[in-house]
Write a structure and sequence with these properties.
The chain is of the alpha+beta class. The protein is built from 5 helices and 4 strands. Helix 1 crosses helix 2. It starts with a helix and ends with a helix. The radius of gyration is 17 Å and the shape is globular. The mean pLDDT is 86.
Amino acid sequence: MSSAYYARLAAVAMMNHGMNRDNHHQLARWAEYAAAQRLTNRGVLITGDGRLHAETVLPPPPPPDHMGGRSALPPPNPPWQIVAATWRGPGEAPTPPRALATAWDRIRDTTGLPTAHILYHEVCTGWAGSDVEQNPSP
């Protein structure tokens, strides 16, 4: 069971992605683990029923290519990748260059549920508010 802090952050993230906030439990457990491990370059693919289908990782950008003593423009960030050991979707885990989009489509098409890519910073950092603020009286 996760702490109330991560439960609130996970519930808000689910709601912000158009999903039922009551299905936040697996996401909250992942958030608490990711925060403890400082996995700042990670995220998860999750469906509206609260099931985690894969963890994602954003690899660090490659070092800039210095030519003739001039600083080259920094290379663009590489695309998100699927952590193969965490893949719960159909078939093998998708690989770059379109790993995230392919995984997202496979999960959505297989489950028929809304799917979201929720990042570390959405569920591991920030102010979680209070239950009163997140569930105001009508």
